[in-house]
Write a structure and sequence with these properties.
Layout (H helix, E strand, L loop, with lengths): L3 H15 L5 H16 L1 E10 L2 E9 H5 L13 E3 L5 H8 L3 E3 L16 H6 L6 E7 L5 E11 L5 E2 L4 H37 L5 H22 L3 H16 L10 H4 L7 H8 L1 H7 L7 H12 L42 H16 L10 H10 L7 H9 L1 H10 L5
Antiparallel strand pairs: 1-2, 1-6, 2-3, 4-5, 5-6, 6-7
């Protein structure tokens, strides 16, 4: 059994790991995974503060996960609760106090909070022990609540969380809160960049960018597992892809309002100018590139390429928009098209995510398509517009993609 010092040392090591994660959604997943493993908890949830509410932002549950088929993910809906004493998490956030409950169905009734059993009834799950702690920043502002559910002993029986867990989870929650604040800052910077594009093109919204990014991560994870990539590599790339995919259309900031806001069909010349948002976006990430810059540049440049070579911009230099040396169409001046696996995988993945969201969404110039029509379009696009392997991943993760659409609606 670990000593208290060994536990703190282990938590410090975990804290260093979560501080390497940059994207907010990936960070919540990593925080909850580490916390549950450390405390041997069957389930857990994270709530993030938004104004005077707590938003249910991430959850994991081993018991419910085991009921699903191989490769399937737990689907959950987001909701918000008030920060007040009515609920356990609301109480923890309001009072900045840890709560350790041996059995939620055997509370005395004198507690200022109550346990809501609706989830247990809907999911056929049984919460028993619970440990909830506030996550704060250096100013002691509450950022959210992390909640551990059903500690287990070595034989798998549910037991109360030990009082010795309390000091450790407080230390962990402090580190998690600081990491979350950094990730929120990064997310907000990205959303500000997208808001600049939104001022030019009303269809390019933060909600659209969040959905495309969330879809892309699910598609990549499914595709990567099929390709036999290691879990470590998948997690590392997911973190970067989540942010890179949000920036897929950032090059639109350089396109004229006359084109972006034109209510009628673009002329051939205008359409050629519109295509430039791909390499203009990629150009933003060329200087002193990090892994994120490199992937964001790939995504911006290639998300309108098509598997059969009929997409754009083809083999061009992002700095000039002109064909790369040796990649000019014979007898012409245009660039050779990119075909199949010449298109980087992250461009192929975001292409699927972007089109799917566009078809699902209502725009000023079109209504949202019906689900049957959307799925037929995606299916028939395999091998022409889309990488067939990515389309297989699309249909394998369709239930999760639908739930993600509800998590990032166009109006909140």
């Amino acid at each position: 059994m670990l000593s208290e010092k060994e536990k703190i040392d282990l938590i410090t090591g975990i804290s260093l790991d979560i501080n390497e994660v940059k994207d907010l959604d990936m960070l919540l997943e990593r925080i909850l995974t580490h916390a549950r493993q450390f405390f041997n908890a069957d389930a857990g949830s994270i709530y993030l503060k938004r104004k005077d509410q707590l938003r249910f932002s991430h959850t994991q549950n081993d018991t419910l996960q085991k009921r699903l088929g191989p490769g399937k993910k737990l689907i959950y809906s987001t909701f918000s609760i008030p920060i007040n004493n009515a609920s356990i998490s609301g109480y923890v956030a309001k009072n900045r106090r840890l709560v350790n409950i041996p059995h939620v169905y055997r509370m005395s009734g004198s507690e200022p909070y109550t346990f809501d059993s609706n989830f247990d009834e809907l999911s056929d799950y049984r919460c028993q022990s619970m440990l909830a702690v506030p996550m704060t920043n250096q100013r002691e502002d509450v950022l959210g609540v992390i909640q551990m559910i059903n500690a287990k002993d070595d034989s798998g029986e549910v037991i109360p969380f030990s009082p010795s867990h309390e000091l450790v989870i407080k230390h962990f929650a402090t580190s998690a809160g600081l990491a979350i604040e950094r990730a929120q800052t990064t997310r907000n910077i990205i959303l500000r960049m997208i808001s600049m594009a939104e001022l030019r093109d009303p269809t390019e919204t933060g909600h659209h960018a969040n959905r495309v990014a969330a879809f892309s991560v699910e598609l990549y994870e499914s595709w990567a597992r099929e390709q036999g990539l290691s879990p470590h590599e998948i997690n590392r790339q997911k973190d970067i892809l989540r942010m890179a995919a949000m920036l897929h259309d950032v090059g639109k900031v350089a396109i004229s309002d006359v084109i972006l806001k034109k209510p009628s069909r673009l002329t051939a010349g205008e359409y050629e100018m519109m295509k430039g948002h791909t390499y203009l976006g990629a150009r933003l990430f060329l200087k002193n590139p990090s892994e994120l810059d490199e992937m964001a540049g790939q995504v911006a440049l290639n998300h309108h390429e098509k598997w059969d070579g009929s997409g754009y911009p083809g083999h061009v230099d992002p700095l000039t928009g002109r064909p790369l040396p040796g990649f000019t169409v014979p007898g012409g001046s245009g660039p050779l098209p990119k075909l199949a696996e010449e298109i980087p995988i992250f461009g192929r993945i975001v292409a699927v995510a972007d089109v799917y969201d566009a078809l699902c969404s209502r725009r000023a110039y079109k209504a949202a398509w019906s689900e049957d029509r959307i799925l037929e379009e995606m299916r028939t696009g395999a091998g022409s517009h889309f990488d067939p392997a990515v389309i297989r991943s699309f249909f394998a993760t369709l239930d999760v993609l639908k739930s993600l659409s509800e998590r990032y609606p166009d109006t909140l």
